[in-house]
Amino acid sequence: MTKLSIPIAALSFVAVVSAAHADPQKLAEEKQCLICHSVDNKIGRATGFKTIAQKYSGKADAEANLVQMIKKGGVGHWGYVPMPPAGWKRPDVSEAEAKELVDWILALH
Ligand code: HEC
């Protein structure tokens, strides 16, 4: 039995690391953000994340505002096409996940 406990501890460590999402772009894929947004503006349904980063990076309240936008959706910042709230026809996004996504997006510029 004691022999077994070491591999199990190693496995749960791997699980914790992957839950922290070392790769935010993967998180964006999992949350289906990239259905509408591209990272570098290659597809057109919603503004690319690089352009969004250029508009907001360095602005003091950008992180908090964009976290709210990701959770609740919104319209009118880029045009008349609305962004639906998280959890509507796609995976829900926690506050921590939204923060991680925003920090990644804002660093893209
Ligand atoms: C169904 C299409 C769609 C999906 C899916 C989507 N978005 Fe959006 N997103 C939009 C549209 C459209 C806008 C522009 C809305 C506007 O003009 O206010 C937008 C705007 C944004 C903005 C800029 C907000 C602002 O205030 O300027 C951010 C940041 C963003 N999205 C992040 C995300 C993230 C992160 C995800 C995944 C969790 C995601 N989006 C999923 C369509 C989408």
From TrEMBL:
Domain Cytochrome c span(s) in chain numbering: 19-109
KW Electron transport (keyword) present: yes
PROSITE patterns: CYTC (PS51007)
Signal peptide: 1-22
Keywords, comma-separated and alphabetical: Electron transport, Heme, Iron, Metal-binding, Signal, Transport
Entry keyword annotation includes rRNA-binding: no
GO molecular function, one term: heme binding
UniProt-listed Pfam families: Cytochrom_C
Protein modification: Binds 1 heme c group covalently per subunit.
Binding-site positions, heme c: 33, 37, 83
Protein name, UniProt field: Cytochrome c-551
Organism (species): Sideroxyarcus emersonii
Taxonomic lineage from the root: Bacteria, Pseudomonadati, Pseudomonadota, Betaproteobacteria, Nitrosomonadales
